[in-house]
Amino acid sequence: MLSARERKRLGLDRPITRRDFIKGMMVGAGSLVLSGCSGSTFGSDTPPALTLPPSVHSYFGGDTPDTISTCHRVHNGESFDQGEDTGEIYDLVVVGAGLGGLTPEEKILLLDNHVDFGGDAQRNELTVKGQRIIVTQACDYQWAIGSEYAQVKKLWDDLGIDLSPTSDLALAPEAYHEHLFVNGEWIRDFWETGYNSVSSPWSKQVQDDYDAFWEIMESFKWEPWAQVKAELAEWDKISFKEWMEDVNGWDPQVTHLIDMWVRSDYGAGVDTLSAACGFWNFTGGDFVRYKWPGGMSGFARHLVNALIPQALNGQDVITGNMDRNALDSSENNVRIRLESTVVEVRHEGSAESSDHVLIK
Ligand SMILES: Cc1cc2nc3c(=O)[nH]c(=O)nc-3n(C[C@H](O)[C@H](O)[C@H](O)COP(=O)(O)OP(=O)(O)OC[C@H]3O[C@@H](n4cnc5c(N)ncnc54)[C@H](O)[C@@H]3O)c2cc1C
């Protein structure tokens, strides 16, 4: 539940005379009533078509062209005139059914453009040669947390999730392998052993530079804090790329690999991120990491199971088949409406005097 302060900040303490919604793409229960949503020509910004290898018989989830084509139309400046008033009234409408949006409230509607909830913490499901495969789309791991995060621990307990170091979900460090496709070839476990294997695309010099990078990161101590703080202040003045290439003289191929990880973690490259920030990311020592099949979509599923139990109806939270109609049932307090891209949010009339918001 939202705190009293948060409710006030969002204006939920004010009386609602009427909040309604325009039936456009948003309230068509996934029908996306606008013409041309399923992939006609939208100019040069058209998302590329999805091509699957012949061995993949079915595919579910992800940023498929259908999912993002409406966003491309917004980006291209199209206007969306069609629509009819559905008369639906909610206390709160959340655009995006990612981990941040999955919120318990009294009367809430979540709208998301994807075929599944979870946002970055979504799963992709494939059937390959009759075998169901559940994979992570982006958000993979839950990290162990310190005692200061008592509220998060309480949430895990409330959801019945065991994230103790002995939990089945805890990954042994040796279970963590990442294989990279480099120059047309898979390099097994690139970070740990692949980079200096016989198939490595790197010269001995680049491998040594990479070793030097980890030597610094792994031996770094975050104490005494006064000294570390002063060093961080200096590293904050240059980019992570400058620190690697100019200060340490390492090969740009090392920077290129690190750049990939930094982009995934921060949404910004090594040329933008300060050295201090990059440094913080790669030091830290041992920690326990937890993972469900399909990564953090497991956590999203636990949240949805608590909010809308009838969607899984007692099945296993991770492998059960989610009843997608139940997610958006009018009997729910929390409704999740998928395949629904919001193209416009506005007050009716002036923001000062308007008592409701229209969502298209
Ligand atoms: C590659 C990658 C790896 C990551 N790995 C980890 C990890 O291992 N562990 C970890 O803790 N964190 C990880 N993160 C971070 C974590 O995934 C995110 O911080 C978190 O999932 C964000 O949740 P959110 O709800 O704020 O946003 P999002 O997950 O982005 O959800 C927002 C949703 O809103 C939808 N949306 C946006 N605009 C509209 C619109 N107009 N209409 C309808 N829908 C809309 C989006 O499509 C999306 O589905 C990773 C992130 C990325 C990108």
Strand content: 5-15%
- Please trace the helix and strand order, writing H or E for each element: HEEHEEEEEEHEEEHHHHHEHHEEE
The SS-based structural class is: alpha+beta
Strand segment count:
15
Q: What is the radius of gyration computed over CA atoms, rounded to a whole number of angstroms?
A: 24 Å
Shape: globular
Major beta sheet summary: 3 strands, antiparallel
Neighbour order of strands in the largest sheet: 2-6-7
**Portion of residues in helices?**
25-40%
Total of helices: 10
- In total, the number of domains comes to 2
Low-confidence regions? 15-44
Q: pLDDT average, as an integer? A: 83
How far is it from the N-terminal to the C-terminal residue, by CA? 26 Å
Can you list the ligands bound to this structure?
flavin-adenine dinucleotide
Structural features, described:
With 360 residues, the chain is an alpha+beta fold. It folds into two domains: 4-138 and 293-359, no CATH class; 142-289, no CATH class. Helices cover 28% and strands 14% of the residues. The strands form six sheets. A three-stranded antiparallel beta sheet has the order 2-6-7, with no helix packed on it. The chain has a three-stranded parallel beta sheet with strand order 4-5-13, with no helix packed on it. Strands 8-12-9 form a three-stranded antiparallel beta sheet, with no helix packed on it. Helix 6 crosses helix 8. The protein is globular, with a radius of gyration of 24 Å. The two termini are 26 Å apart. 25% of the residues are buried. Flavin-adenine dinucleotide binds at residues 95-96, 98-101, 111-114, 119-121, 138-141, 264, 296, 341-342. The site of flavin-adenine dinucleotide (FAD) has 21 residues, from loops.
